[in-house]
Amino acid sequence: MKLGKKIRCLGGLVVVLVMSSFFYTADAHSLWLNFTDYMPVVSDSGQLRTKLYVGWGHRFPVDSFVKSEDFESIILRDPTGMEKNITLETTGFAAAALTLDKPGMYTAAVTRKAALNTSYKRNGKIITAKEDKIGKENIISSVYSQQFAKSIICADGKFIGDIGHEFGQKLEIIPITNPYEIINNRGGLMKVRVLFEGKPVSFLKVWGMYEGYSSGDAASVMASTNRDGVAEFRIDHWGIWLLRTRYDRSAAGELAGRVDDEHYFSSITFSVP
């Protein structure tokens, strides 16, 4: 093969690798939180109203249905640090109408129930089961997985409250920058910290996209966390943003021997004015 042709082939390979890195893991559904209004203002009735709903799948902001029983907890934290549990509606998309009692920054956090999935061969057939691998032979894969999501809203334009509060999710994205304070939405910087079991995760990829960029899992920006678990993005578009990350490891602790691998997913949504 001539040198020029080799270079072109290598160049094409680099392009493919770079482009593929801008796609979130397509083999797993993603979890996220949405609000019908990320910046509610006081209405004529004197109330601050918005609606929370849960996104699930591959097409942000709306894709598949979920049920309220799919989740361990859904928490809303107000600007003073008070927290309350949110109960989802049982019909249609999983949602909850909210009346906010004060202006400021609110953070919602949801934890989906963990899942076990094992594939193995038996009598020449591939069997899949929502359980661990104990007692099974010819294991193809056995995974424990769990998903977490958060969202930040700004009520009545007031920047009161702690958006960096840690909810204790096993894999959690902590905002460092308040996105509602980003003035230049065509070049402003957004920083987040990623924690696993409460500790910063180094060199972990974080994907980001604004609503309308893609109908699938493509991301408009991507960054890796530094040694302190901090990732920095350049916000290149106004509107609703979704950041996502994933952390995998070999089964550890009480899961060792029950499954082969652990997969964790986390996301955060917010609006850039």
Please tell me about this protein's structure:
The protein is mostly beta strands. It contains 1 helix and 17 strands. The chain has one helix at residues 3-21; strands at 30-35, 48-57, 71-77, 83-85, 95-100, 104-112, 115-122, 125-129, 139-155, 171-175, 188-196, 199-200, 205-210, 221-224, 230-235, 239-250, 261-272. Strands 3, 4, 6, 7, 8, 9, 13, 14, 16 and 17 form a 10-stranded mixed β-sheet that branches. The longest helix has 19 residues, at 3-21. 32% of the residues are buried. Mean pLDDT is 87; it is low at 5-26.
Summary tags:
ten-stranded mixed sheet; 17 strands
Shape: globular
Give helix and strand order, one letter per element, not per position. HEEEEEEEEEEEEEEEEE
Task: Look at the helices and sheets and give the structural class.
Answer: mainly beta
Count of DSSP strands: 17
Major beta-sheet overview: 10 strands, mixed
Summarize the topology.
Blueprint: H1 3-21, E1 30-35, E2 48-57, E3 71-77, E4 83-85, E5 95-100, E6 104-112, E7 115-122, E8 125-129, E9 139-155, E10 171-175, E11 188-196, E12 199-200, E13 205-210, E14 221-224, E15 230-235, E16 239-250, E17 261-272
Parallel strand pairs: 9-17
Antiparallel strand pairs: 1-2, 2-5, 3-4, 3-6, 6-9, 7-8, 7-9, 10-11, 11-12, 11-15, 13-14, 13-16, 16-17
